[in-house]
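ligand=FE2/S2 (inorganic) cluster
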Amino acid sequence: MTKLIVIIDGHEIETSAEGGSTTILEAARLAGIYIPTLCHHPSLEAYGSCRLCTVQIVKNGRKKLVTACNFPLEDGLIVNTCTQEIMEIRRMIMELLLARCPQEKRLQEMAGEYGVIKPRFLPQDKNCILCGLCYRVCEELVGVAAINAQNRGVTRDVDTPYGQLSEECIACGACALVCPTNSIFERKNIYPLTSIDIKEMEEEFLCGANDDDLGVNREMLAAKSSVEGQDGGMVTSILQRGIETGLLDGAIVAQKDERLGAKAALVDEAASILQAKGTKYVRVSVIAPLLEALEKGKRRIAVVGTPCQMRTVRKLQRQGYFQERFSDAQIFLIGLFCFESFDYESLKSRVIELFGIDLDRSEKMQIARGKFIIAAEGKEYSCRVRDLGDAVRAGCGFCGDLVSRLADISIGSIGSEDGYSTVIVRSEQGERLLNAAQFDRKGINREDIAKLAAIKKKNADGNFAGIVAGLTERMEAEGNVGAQSSAECRNSGILS
Ligand code: FES
């Protein structure tokens, strides 16, 4: 391990840097020296966009300004974090940021530390400071990249590609967690949900007893319909009967597709529902086909999807997105139990590798008790889900919802004996769907579902812990030494 000695604000600090990975900011924080930051998060690649962490370095007798968050330590480096020039730079940055976001409380406080109360520049009415934390966490940690920076100069902003409603966003809320100004909640085409939002949506859309592990429910049962196929065939049966009885005009379901493997499309005839039977375990776009169906004049539409898709559609419903355009629309959410979904192309390659069979020609795919089961040409093949490796879709590790807690009715295989589907009814709409179907019923094993739900939640909590730890580190740095450091600069006359 290479030992380095650096001098920060006159304090000699001994540290080590493997491959030059330790930055001035890290060394300063270890030594309790405060350098303000806005765009830095220790779990993300250094970005260097806000410039607030500007410090002065002295190297070979020459002075230079650098950003502390991404400048690698070098032996013998002299760093000054609190000179007149640096304070003026930070003051200017705060003035510019405050002019962009004059209502933003955190900026007002930070700017106040530098004596900036009213910026000299023309005020705008933004809340986003363009720190980039939201889209970097989405890409680098969650692995989804639903949003990114768009445009240049004063029109620079954060958005989805072409400003379209996102089909990629999994509503995990990681962007909301890191956004320092809460401006992420202003974006209408992604779905940054917090646990408070989820609670409020449960209250708005669902009605039943509260179960901490499995969500709001009116009834939980094991059910078997006359449909041959996956488990009790309840998704197919509910959709068929819904269309036959006129409760539904159609349903958005995943179907096999020659080119894409699977895609979601509107099915509006009871007989055609059978062709889409069988869970695909692949996340497909549901928002675009749902909007197309509404534009075609369909009004009572069921959407079948994964827990993350239930969250995204609910968020749009909560924003009044469908209601504003189609005031009489009624959307029924049928959520599947989902531990993780797959990227079709990666899964296809993995299945060829493992079993030598073509996924496009499979007759059935199923996940049960940690096993991936596939049937093709009359034979059944299986492996552990974990053996599918990279085929698991990015982002699933940040979803803690096994049982589609925001659906009107949730359906899966866990908790029921073979040949039955577990059904959780969560709303009056869900109850109407179930009552229209014909099936045999049995009891479920609630504990089996709760156990797996807890594992999924624990995995997601573990992944979020890294993000939270980084935020805590920043808050501690600001809370413990920030005020003290500002006071020192003020006493020395650098800050007025
Ligand atoms: Fe270093 Fe933003 S540039 S924290």
